[in-house]
């Protein structure tokens, strides 16, 4: 099975315009994402962008890109167009977030292994929560799984609810997982979900993966131990720089 990593990279981000071109310790964010993805066992890595400035940067450091429609609703839709532009060369797609410049290659490899299985049509990652603030934050998406590792539900609320237990004790009495937003799809599944219309649960929680569950698809999850560093706003660049200083001391 041939698996391509596609990195959606939109220029006109509402909270951080030009984010893929932001500099982190001497390299653009999009370059750092690509370089991490190149270390994985993907067959190819392609940036799907809507802007020639990003395309020029990718070409400048030796990467591959495709130019896509600027009006897509989501990164998933951009990945679908990119897959079509690649003319069906690949059997599966890993949707790699373009704002996670330090993504671990082994996280990508976990998804490559999962999506290569015959019984997996969609896959993603989860990580155990050990911080109380994160557990109760609506910005951290929680997920519960069945015994086979399939997602049962995603929510911005803590799950499961610990009845008759004080909130301060939830982490000591239960096991909670947050969702890590990187996805793998079989190529036909990606095309199918791109045609789905928004659903009630998706709109209520503002989580597109609920659309897929509501339409009867299964999402297989692997548990990762690696904490990702996402860059959502210009103020997040400071923590990215600090992370780079701590983790990339040997980088040339």
SSE blueprint and pairings:
Layout: E1 3-9, E2 23-24, E3 27-28, H1 29-38, E4 44-49, H2 52-60, E5 64-67, H3 75-85, E6 92-95, H4 105-115, E7 122-128, H5 132-136, E8 142-145, E9 151-155, H6 170-173, E10 177-186, H7 187-194, H8 200-205, H9 209-214, E11 220-223, H10 236-247
Parallel strand pairs: 1-4, 1-6, 4-5, 7-11
Antiparallel strand pairs: 2-3, 6-10, 7-10, 8-9, 8-10
Structure description:
The protein has about 250 residues and is an alpha/beta fold. Helices cover about 35% and strands about 20% of the residues. It has 10 helices and 11 strands. Strands 1, 4, 5, 6, 7, 8, 9, 10 and 11 form a 9-stranded mixed sheet that branches. It has a two-stranded antiparallel ribbon with strand order 2-3. Helix 2 (about 50-60) links the parallel strand 4 and strand 5 (about 65). Helix 3 (about 75-85) packs across helix 7. The longest helix has 12 residues, at about 235-245. The chain is globular. The two termini are about 35 Å apart. The model has no long low-confidence stretch (mean pLDDT about 90).
Distance between the termini: 34 Å
The gross shape turns out to be globular
Unreliable spans: none
Q: Kindly estimate the percentage of residues that lie in beta strands according to DSSP.
A: 15-25%
Structural class: alpha/beta
Report the count of strand segments.
Answer: 11
Element-by-element helix/strand order: EEEHEHEHEHEHEEHEHHHEH
Query: What does the largest sheet look like?
Result: 9 strands, mixed
Percent in helix: 25-40%
- The radius of gyration computed from the alpha-carbon positions, rounded to a whole number of angstroms, is 18 Å
Mean pLDDT value = 92
Helical run tally: 10
